[in-house]
Amino acid sequence: MSFRTVYGYSTSEAGWRMCNRDECGLVTIPDLYYVDTAPIRKGAPLTILGAWLYWYDRNVEEIVSPVWGWSATNDVANSNHLSGTAVDVNAPRYPWGSRTMPAAKKAKVREGLRLFEGLVFWGADWDRADEMHYQMGVAEGDQRAAAFAAKLRGGYLGIYKSAPPAPKPVPNMIDECARRHPEIGARLHTGERICKDGVGRYAEFAGGRIYWHPRTGAHVIPAGPIGEAFDKRGYEWNLGYPEWEANRALRDGGQCQAFEKGVLYTYSGGPVEGALIHGKIGDRWAREGWEGGRLGYPLGDEQPTADGGRRQEFEHGAMLWHPSEAIEILAAR
Fold first, then answer.
1. Is 250 helix (H, G, I), strand (E, B) or coil?
2. In terms of C-beta density within 10 A (0-12 exposed, 13-18 middle, 19 or more buried), how is residue 263 classed?
3. pLDDT in the model for residue 164
4. H or E element: which one contains 40?
5. What is the distance, to the nearest Å, from the Cα of residue 295 to the centroid of all Cα atoms in its chain?
6. What is the pLDDT of residues 3-61, one digit of tens each?
7. Adjacent-strand bridge partners of 210
8. Which residues of 124-144 are buried (b: 16+ CB within 10 A; e: fewer)?
9. Is 191 left (phi over 0), alpha (psi -120 to 50) or beta?
10. φ/ψ (deg, to 5) at 171
């Protein structure tokens, strides 16, 4: 067994022991994608939350971005991600603290929670809504978890089935992404091109490019400001691979897209290479309301300070990170 104490906590908010990665497994339900980024605690949590992801994908909406599961660290000291008993689904659509899910989808989620008999809890029911978040609904040791996992394994809801007689062909993820995004237009060449790391692949289309990597899946980088800024910054070699689809409907013509090394923003009047935000400053800026908050858009990348910290300028102020882990927001301009 491999358990730990994190930030002074030995159990997470829902009453499960904090664990290391080796106590977690991955969901292996056929035809369920974007779940290999979400380790889940072995045993009942893996069975139950894995089944929930499948039910959600088939009944609420398609899972279109990497699911988040176990994490080594977290901004919330007793987060259930630290015990491998929580998953975040389609996170870009449902920012923490917002209630953006349409009523029809909420109704489907509620139906699913009823079918899962209280074994799954939805973060939308917290005072500060977290509509992307689902976690175990009972504490470790509660026999209802093992009983419901056995019920699922026995065929309840038809999720865990016998293996098919022959394996299905592995889908080409770039082709699948292009199918989901017809707005990207016609493919400009046959086959795929190899990225500099020898692992990733990309293909060019009339309206942008699709990049794929086993860590991140396949995502569109649209032509236009985001695509141009990505090029100017040295492609995936410097920014990493895209993790989400681009949001092209921000204020003042703004756009953003998350990459492995940060979120790239472009907007009218901003730098042509965009502005990258990440790390502790990025986390705090998100809590302040992103570009719609009091600081507005980032004016450029963060820069080092004389005391070993980092500083980033925004439209209406600046944010400083100190080596002590303190974050300071300067008076808004």
1. coil
2. buried
3. 53
4. strand 40-41
5. 24
6. 999 999 999 999 999 999 999 999 999 999 999 999 999 999 999 999 999 999 999 99
7. 203, 220
8. beeeebbbbbbbbbbebeeee
9. left
10. -70, 150
| DSSP class per residue in 190-219 | SS-EE-TTSS-EEEEETTEEEEEETTTEEE
- Residue 277 φ then ψ, to 5°: -130, 140
The closest alpha carbon to 300, from 262, 259, 330, belongs to: 262
* Residue whose C-alpha is closest to residue 317's, from 283, 281, 280: 281
CB of 312 closer than 8 Å to CB of 303 = yes
For the chain, the structural domain boundaries read: 21-158, 170-248
Tokens of 77: 């000291």
CB atoms within 10 A of CB 26: 13
What pLDDT is recorded for position 165?
Answer: 59
- List the one residue out of 222, 41, 259 whose CA is nearest residue 146: 41
Question: Any residues with CB less than 8 A from the CB of 311 and at least 6 apart, and which?
Answer: 302, 303, 304, 305, 318, 319, 320, 321
Residue 304, both tokens: 């080092």
* Residue 113 near residue 122, CB atoms below 8 Å: yes
What is the three-state SS of 167-190? CCCCCCHHHHHHHHCHHHCCECCC
Residue 36 CB burial class (10 angstroms; 0-12, 13-18, ≥19): middle
CA–CA gap between residue 237 and residue 221 (Å, rounded): 15
Go through the chain and tell me how many residues it has: 333
Q: Give the Cα separation of 109 and 130 in Å (integer).
A: 13
